[in-house]
Write a structure and sequence with these properties.
3 helices; Alpha-Beta Plaits; 2 domains; alpha+beta; globular; about 110 residues; 4-stranded antiparallel β-sheet
Length: about 110
Amino acid sequence: MRFRSAIFALTSARWTEATSRASAASLMTAPAAFAAHRTVTFVVDNMTCASCPYIVKDSMAAVPGVANVTVSFEAKIATVTYDDAATNEDAIAAASMKAGYPAHPKQGSN
């Protein structure tokens, strides 16, 4: 009987330790559950030719966390969907600025 009790105690301790680790790991990743995809429209300056939207799109899409970029040459805007846990509007605008196309969020777009 002692042998069975010892095995049960050891098995129980290992199971408790394993579930504690799993709980700790899930708590460490919990903030990601609060991340949201956001969409913002930027007014983009300096787009003067048909090639400009491709450069703006590539520069904004290169920002980690950006999921989608659509650029309109005619309207001089870029609509960006991004993960707000990974990036923000300032980082996306900075990437466009670095490529030579200053961008700022359009009023009421987000």
